[in-house]
DNA sequence: TGCATTACTTACCAATTGGAAACTAGTTTC
DNA sequence: GAAACTAGTTTCCAATTGGTAAGTAATGCA
């Protein structure tokens, strides 16, 4: 019988797999990273700002994704008592810990495009 | 009229948004990160090794995801002329550039679990 | 001869995701 | 009084995702 490789059976690997699954779940869906990225750059933003800013998103999706992000304490929702009521969304300190991930993902994407055309390798 | 925030309309931001979308597309689906993570740790691995190693994945999914990864040149597929034919999969040098992303995602996931229970903040 | 192993593929099905459009509801402006 | 702006919610539908199970084809072993 051939000896087969076993790399994911240690506790360490299982922890890593769970960690990856957790993060991907928190960032699941088409829009969460973009909402987070936009809020990280824009600071406090209102619902309508986000709706106009994030190209292609529908109100239903924005609303649902913001609820998810709020539930995971990555953003805060604050109702402001203006003329027509407005709601401000902002990334929490905890939410800001996502920045390294988003940056790495953005960096890789740039690298990917360059490779497709540049072909330096 | 209220002045609304515009943060994603610059060329720089559009490039970033495209970059994020590209990366997420390359890593799309439930399994790609795990396959990549397993191969990064295990080096050369056969189809059946991966099938046994990656908990819960079905042959259909593994096959399809490996094809996607191969198309994007993140892994190589090599047929080995053994008794029953075997196929070896390996992460390319290019594929290894995904490591920082995977590491950040894994790190955040560990941080997330610690926060859920530890509550140091 | 028949069963096992390798690496898949195919067929079918269920659940989730996400998009369009319309609707709600309170307030303000013309 | 009508239209517009705020922040959503609701309904309905289509596409994608992913899972189970079975089938295929080549080879080796008892």
Report the principal-axis shape of chain A: globular
Q: Which quaternary structure do these chains form? A: homodimer
Largest interface: A-B, 50 and 50 residues
Low-confidence stretches of chain A: none
- Report the sheet-strand fraction of chain A: 5-15%
Structural class of chain A: mainly alpha
Order of helices and strands of chain A: HHEHHEEH
Please identify which CATH superfamily of chain A we are dealing with.
Winged helix-like DNA-binding domain superfamily/Winged helix DNA-binding domain
In round numbers, the mean pLDDT of chain A is 92
Range of helix content of chain A: 40-55%
Numbering strands along the chain, what is their spatial order in the largest sheet of chain A? 1-3-2
> How much is the radius of gyration of chain A in Å?
19 Å
How far the N terminus sits from the C terminus of chain A, by CA atoms, comes to 40 Å
Please give the CATH architecture of chain A. Answer: Orthogonal Bundle
Note the total helix count of chain A.
5
Q: Tally the structural domains of chain A.
A: 1
Question: What's the CATH first level of chain A?
Answer: Mainly Alpha
């Amino acid at each position: 019988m051939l000896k087969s490789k076993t790399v994911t059976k240690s506790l360490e690997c299982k922890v890593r797999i769970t960690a990856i699954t957790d993060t991907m779940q928190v960032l699941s869906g088409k829009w969460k990273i973009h909402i987070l990225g936009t809020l990280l750059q824009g600071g406090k933003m209102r619902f309508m700002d986000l709706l106009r800013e994030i190209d292609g998103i529908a109100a239903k999706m924005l609303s649902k994704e913001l609820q998810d992000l709020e539930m995971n304490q990555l953003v805060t929702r604050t109702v402001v008592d203006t003329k027509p009521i407005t709601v401000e969304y902002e990334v929490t300190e905890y939410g800001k810990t996502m920045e390294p991930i988003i940056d790495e993902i953005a960096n890789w994407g740039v690298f990917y495009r360059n490779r497709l055309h540049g072909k330096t390798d």
